[in-house]
């Protein structure tokens, strides 16, 4: 299965932030979306995940389905292997795409375990099974937050709560994991550890991971591809292809240099 968007367009009031932005995400991908403040990273991820329609009259994002795969929730099957996200029921989208919004606050007092368990609603509904409980524990172990499971969400630090939100998205087990600034609230070590975890998750080959992030230098160390937003469009490719002076100047302006890190042997900016 492939998640694609073609020529996305979106505006903030009279300001157009996305102009013909396109991206393709496959299982096994780990793509970091970078760009200046206000460049449209969050808007792009919402459009990609099917949460917003943008300026198009049709859904801007679609799934390319394998020929053998069924879409049982569709009432009609015209034989097309391209399915637009906004033509799907919300729960069907959630089965396939786990989306983490940029910010969120606890809505009620509950345990971390039960908070993560809500990520299992799309695949299971309210009748949770032993497998659902197992997925919660598995996601917590993966992010190393098992000691937090019985804690109240109201007692967590900002960084702890962020990790719990990410664990909930992982427990959802969609084919695509789209995270809007998951490193917000994390210190530099926690940021590197999280990006490394996302790389490991994508290396399993079953999940395509898309992350928006401000720290380009951290992104290029772990991501398989960089998607750089500038002037409403996207340049996507390997770090070596994308992090070059011309693209960086276009995205961030003058005064930023590009160099190769002597230890990691990857592009860095400064």
From TrEMBL:
Keywords assigned by UniProt, alphabetized: ATP-binding, Nucleotide-binding, Transport
MF terms (GO), sorted A to Z: ATP binding; ATP hydrolysis activity
UniProt-listed InterPro entries: AAA+_ATPase, ABC_transporter-like_ATP-bd, Metal_Ion_Import_ABC, P-loop_NTPase
PROSITE patterns in the cross-refs: ABC_TRANSPORTER_2 (PS50893)
Residues that span the membrane, as ranges: none
Pfam family, one: ABC_tran
Native organism taxonomy: Bacteria, Pseudomonadati, Spirochaetota, Spirochaetia, Spirochaetales
Keyword match Electron transport: no
Keyword Transport part of the UniProt annotation: yes
Taxonomy, superkingdom: Bacteria
Sequence ranges assigned to domain ABC transporter in this UniProt record: 3-256
This protein's name: Iron complex transport system ATP-binding protein
Source organism (scientific name): Treponema porcinum
